Amino acid sequence: MNQLTKRKQLIKDWIYEAADKSKQSFNQTINIEEKTNRTDLVTNIDKEIEQFFIEKINAHFPDERILGEEGSGHQFTDLKGVVWVIDPIDGTLNFVKQQYDFAIMVSVYKDGVGYLGYIYDVMKNELYFASKNQGAYLNDKPLKKVEDTPLREGLVAISHRLMTSKINDDAREIGRASSGVRMIGSAGLETTRVATGKLVAYIGASLAPWDIGAGKVIAEELGLIYTQLNGEEIDMLKYNKTIVATPSAHKEIRMNYISKTEK
Hints:
Layout: H1 3-24, E1 32-34, E2 41-43, H2 44-60, E3 65-68, E4 82-90, H3 92-97, E5 103-110, E6 113-121, E7 126-131, E8 136-138, E9 141-142, E10 155-158, H4 160-163, H5 170-177, E11 180-182, H6 187-195, E12 201-207, H7 209-221, E13 225-228, E14 240-245, H8 247-256
Parallel strand pairs: 3-4, 10-11, 10-12
Antiparallel strand pairs: 1-2, 4-5, 5-6, 6-7, 7-8, 8-9, 12-14, 13-14
């Protein structure tokens, strides 16, 4: 077994084990804390799963760095070498309120380039995976390149923060120009909907590297465009206003609906 194949299998095994930990917590009393506000939550399960991944990575790949949502990994000023990007529970609010529509996300970057990306929809048992230049898969079945559907012919997902903004109507204009707006509350799962052609675009108000890492690898393998909302490349060292979309929808949204302050 070569090193890349071994790495892929280890990641899959770890994801499934972490998913079991998340589901077992449904029968427990979990500790819930607010991070920045009442809709930005963290639980002891988020922290435990992140620590689980850190211990596994350190045991097998001790020279590689880890960027994790809950801050248990390394501090970063660059992306040199191999960097793991971990989101232990993407959609923590859903995890707490619904016990549904949350994901585990893992990606591996080398010198700032994404090579492996995994998004696991825990409750649906759907593992989305991509390897750079080797295509994308859903539960080991190849995914087809996404059809280049224009905005008016497709559904879009737009973050709650943008849709409810009182100072900017761009998000609502995009929604009106599309076939309709859908919200899930998990950046990873919304990205998988674009990756499978169920949506033509997903727009996020402020996504962190761990919200982006895996989805970007998967999306780009399928012919989608994943950038900052202003059209610039994603910066994996900061929070980004983001858009992942079909080429046609991406161009239309960027040209016609994003405000001058974003351009």
